[in-house]
Amino acid sequence: MLDLTHVFNAFPIIETERLRLCEIVPADADALFKVFSDPKVMVGHGTPVHQSVADTRRLIDWYARAFPEKRALRWAVTRHGDDTALGTCGYHDITAYHHRAEIGYELASAAWRQGIMSEAVRAVVRFGLEEMGLHRIEANVDPANPASANLLRKVGFTEEATLRERFFDNGRFVNDWFFAILATEVDKVR
Ligand SMILES: CC(C)(COP(=O)(O)OP(=O)(O)OC[C@H]1O[C@@H](n2cnc3c(N)ncnc32)[C@H](O)[C@@H]1OP(=O)(O)O)[C@@H](O)C(=O)NCCC(=O)NCCS
């Protein structure tokens, strides 16, 4: 069994060249509502578009409860010197017995194509493989979302399989592109 105690003792902050990844707090609700209520962001995300800021507050509460239970570790993505959450990135479905977790992310559309999420995902993957001791990180992508698939390939993930109509996403059944990276492939993270 993977011992994650050291990771979940206190919320870990990750700094990269341009970004500060920190705990999602209730004060992030308005900024994150803009992200989760934007249909452009939510196409292929696999969860419902937020209808009101109450939906976003519920999600923030869920992450806050899941952290001490070692079930999820989700960072707010911010730029150095600006606390505004541009999006989130992190792990859910953390399965300590199998040394495995799933990664997820989403970014405000105004910040797309500036290399922000690949910078965040690279740091989160390194943290997962090197600090958490994960052996395998998985990602599930809707084939209607090539941006996410391209990002994963770019940071070193391998596409492994397509599972048919595995998700019901905002009214339609969609295939699942299964991507993963292994601890033995950490040198591929670039
Ligand atoms: C996927 C997403 C997080 C990408 O964030 P981003 O910060 O714009 O991505 P980056 O600028 O770091 O781009 C990294 C790579 O991803 C790919 N990519 C990003 N946006 C793309 C797009 N619109 N179309 C095709 N490829 C794209 C490219 O390969 C890019 O590398 P390049 O710029 O060298 O060509 C963002 O589009 C998003 O939030 N989408 C909606 C939510 C989502 O899809 N979440 C994941 C669910 S599995």
Protein model, in words:
The chain is 29% helix and 34% strand. The chain is of the alpha+beta class and 190 residues long. It has a single domain (14-188), classed as Gcn5-related N-acetyltransferase (GNAT) (Aminopeptidase). The chain has an eight-stranded mixed beta sheet with strand order 1-2-3-4-5-6-8-7, sandwiched between helices. Helix 2 crosses helix 4 and helix 5 packs across helix 6 (146-155). The chain is globular, with a radius of gyration of 16 Å. The two termini are 29 Å apart. The model has no long low-confidence stretch (mean pLDDT 96). Bound molecules: coenzyme A. Coenzyme A binds next to strand 5, helix 5 and helix 6.
Summarize the helix and strand pattern as letters: HEEHHHEEEHEHEE
Q: Which shape, going by the Cα principal axes?
A: globular
Fraction in beta strands: 25-35%
CATH topology: Aminopeptidase
**Number of DSSP strand runs:** 8
On the 0 to 100 scale, the average pLDDT is: 96
- Structural class given helices, strands, pairing? alpha+beta
Q: Could you estimate the helical fraction of the residues in percent?
A: 25-40%
- Main sheet attributes: strand count, strand direction, barrel closure: 8 strands, mixed
Low-confidence stretches: none
- State Rg: 16 Å
Our measurement of the CA-to-CA distance between the termini, rounded to an integer number of angstroms, reads 29 Å
Strand order, largest beta sheet? 1-2-3-4-5-6-8-7
CATH class value: Alpha Beta
